Amino acid sequence: MVQLFCADIAHVVADPFRDDHALQIIENGALAVADDGVILACDRRDTVRAAYPDAPETAFSGWLLPGMVDGHIHFPQTFATAAHGTHLLDWLERSIFPAEAAYADTPFAARAAATFVDQLLRSGTTTALVFGSQFPDAARALFRSASQAGLQLLSGLTLMDRGAPDVLLHDVARAEQLSRTLIEEVQGQARLHYALTPRFALSCSAEMMQLCGELARAYDGLYIQTHINENHEEITATADAFPAAKHYLDVYDRFGLLGPRTVLAHNIHACDAQLQRLQQSQSAVCHCPASNFYLGSGIFSLQRHLDHGVPVLVGTDIGAGTNFGVLEELASVYKAQQMQRLSLNAAQLLFLGTLAGARALHLDDRIGNFAVGKHADFVVVDAADDPGLSLRLSFCESREDALFTQLNLARPHHVRATYTLGRRYQPLGTKSY
Ligand code: GUN
Ligand code: ZN
């Protein structure tokens, strides 16, 4: 059965940093969605209705936008947001490693997985690249929860063999065995993808990174995710640990960890040589502004990445980040760039939260906008129950202005509904632990 979803639609159909006509706004628009959750049409409501005269429809006030893509977030930090620490390394040791150790308890981790997936979907995120747990049953629980709830998930076992409490570490042989098992379980499952996850150079020996490079070559379609150039102390300690490397990126490069399916989070403090190598290898960088502000890590230059042709996507980086939704993160993206005299417009903000992520993850044949044939993953953002914002929006002179304002003021309670493959997500009720 074909279904219609009617609202004001906005999506991005090209790169708005190169194309002034990338933003498409369809006032009074409709999506037609087939039974299998694939988009059949996206156009004005009367045009779509004429093509599908008998299709049942669901109409919304507010905006119908593509589902958001989160390029960097940590599952085992679900309950560690806004934890105190002076800066990255101190925060990891004091607040984060103990929180991550709690996922050794599989029933707890399974409940946390349901909560984590719920937080993402209820805030409008429909695809996420996620640091899994160090505990294989917890990592597995996340895949299961995502699959049940409809979230498209790219994730994997977080790998560390030094620099943290023993309970979080695996030796290389065990890391290989656990990773191979999980990869083989995940491969071939709809909307699930495996991401090799060496935490960062300071928590991985050369042998562990070597293993990740070998696994990436042994299996088709694996992603690699890690952190880079987030904090000055981290960068100095990495240089001390890998004295032969030219710079931080070179540590990963030496082990074959760069490439078009690699996502490196942060990259705040990067020299031109690293940006050039990122571009050459077509590795992507994930911008996580709320986290960068929260940990005082620094201000990411989007302009330098654009100038070098490095693919950039946006991540919330929970628990250093302070929002579960990329939709809400976009306001921090805007402010971080404003600080450097780059004023993003509505098209650029929406692109960074949707199509840019889809492209960086090579999923733009399936998600990122409402092109025919893609998955009907969308979020309805509506300020009708927010009197202050509704009034503010009534002063906007154009629909594009209203979209810009809504994107800068989005809160989780503005998300009226989230759909994946044309199916409405039912948020969980309050749970106790
Ligand atoms: N670098 C290594 N681990 C982490 C982490 O958990 N969060 C952030 N923000 N940076 C990291
Ligand atoms: Zn992170």
Label this structure with key terms.
433 residues; alpha/beta; Urease, subunit C, domain 1; TIM Barrel; 2 domains; nine-stranded parallel beta sheet; seven-stranded mixed beta sheet; 16 helices; 38% helix; 22% strand; globular; binds guanine; binds zinc ion
How would you describe what is shown here?
By secondary structure, the protein is of the alpha/beta class. It has two domains: about 5-65 and about 370-425, Roll (Urease, subunit C, domain 1), CATH 2.30.40.10; about 70-325, Alpha-Beta Barrel (TIM Barrel). It is about 40% helix and about 20% strand. The protein is built from 16 helices and 16 strands. It has helices at about 45-50, 90-100, 105-120, 135-150, 170-185, 205-220, 230-240, 250-255, 270-280, 290-295, 300-310, 325-340, 345-355, 355-360, 385-395, 400-410, and strands at about 5-10, 25-35, 40-45, 55-65, 70-75, 125-130, 150-155, 160, 190-200, 225-230, 260-265, 285, 310-315, 380, 415-420, 425. α3 packs parallel to α4, α5 packs parallel to α6 (about 205-220) and α12 (about 325-340) packs across α13. The longest helix has 17 residues, at about 105-120. It starts with a strand and ends in a 9-residue tail after the last strand. The model has no long low-confidence stretch (mean pLDDT about 95). Zinc ion binds near residues 227 and 317.
